Amino acid sequence: MTEQSERVRRVAPDERANAPGGVDLSVIVPFYNEEDNVGPLYARLTESAAALGLSYELLFVNDGSGDATEQRLRDLAATDRRVVVINLVRNQGQTAAMMAGIDHARGAILVTMDGDGQNDPADIAAMLDRLDEGFDVVSGWRKDLRWSWFVGQIVGVVKVYSGV
Known about the structure:
By secondary structure, the protein is of the alpha/beta class.
């Protein structure tokens, strides 16, 4: 671990980061037919992660995509040793894809994000700050979803009838 990662030792004394090949932070992102999101999300993630001053890995899980997602992920892994690609042969769903990433993670701290670009990688720093305050788990939610008007109306109806 790096000197700048003192917070990881204090907050998450997990032995994974100290094990050979361990890192401070693992970011796990499942992708399903997200070929157009791979490049922009990777750029935003690497920019945000570099600013943290921690060692990190990016675990990109291809959840059986039928488009060029797998190839774009493999291209990134070929040029960046911090990128780990996990390829599920067929679509297993977001939970299984997330679990595959968690199973392969080497970080003391695990961060999960969606591959659709609606989670802002810049929020990782604020979440780590909350860990520094003594929280064991930090969770976020999407404040302003970028859904279509139609989907928004369906969600609104479900909220009204379900009481959510």
